[in-house]
Amino acid sequence: MMTIKTAMILAAGLGTRMRPITETRPKPLVEVAGKPLIAYSLEALNRLGIERVVVNVHYLAPMLVDWLAAWPGPEIRVVDETAALLDSGGGIVNALPDLGADPFLVLNADTFWLEEPGAQRDNLSMMADRFDPESMDMQLMTARLDQATGHTGGGDFTYEADGRLARYKGAGDAVIYAGAIILHPRIFDGITEKKFSLNRCFDAAAGAGRLFGTPMRGHWLTVGTPEAIGEAEAARSAYLGEPLSGSSGAGR
Questions:
Q1: What region holds the MobA-like NTP transferase domain (predicted)?
Q2: Is a pLDDT exceeding 70 seen at residue 247?
Q3: Which among 241, 231, 238, 242 has a CA at the least distance from the CA of 250?
């Protein structure tokens, strides 16, 4: 199993579709089942034993910085993007001095997943076990469409026989990119723009035959609108077999 020591949580988005909730709090602090979205990511990283977490911030940054300062666990370094948003790829490159030269994890702050009850290993440890820096530049956690709540688009990728991923073009079994990546920072070599999307790196890795996937176990949730909070809470309760608390993050 590869030891992953650092991780980044992409938390600098504006959360415009989550208004009016995000008028008073950044999206990563919107609560689902009584817990801020970003806490689900931090808990997953804690389970893997990550030593340093880097979080980029932009909208209502001081509120998120204060919340992160109180989080118990590994070292958290904040990268301030309040001057200008750098998109998903640029945000990571901006944080590379804190992430190091070895492969690291990247998580989205507005998606999370429920581990499969009774599973002997969680999803991030399965990814770390499968990541091979000799043959891979990027490994994505993927979910089937029937494993997802809140996803409004179609599929993103299809699997090839050896675990490589190719862009979904309408044929084959589509899977969703489920907001978790292990990547080698060499994927950014030669990119000079400060602002760019990770999609560019997905395509480069796929074109080189170095984009792989790990199918997740459990249930994946993405929360993009106020209405999606209740849907996520209901899906969580149904999946885990727990009663719905009746309290939504929308009012707090």
A1: 7-116
A2: no
A3: 231
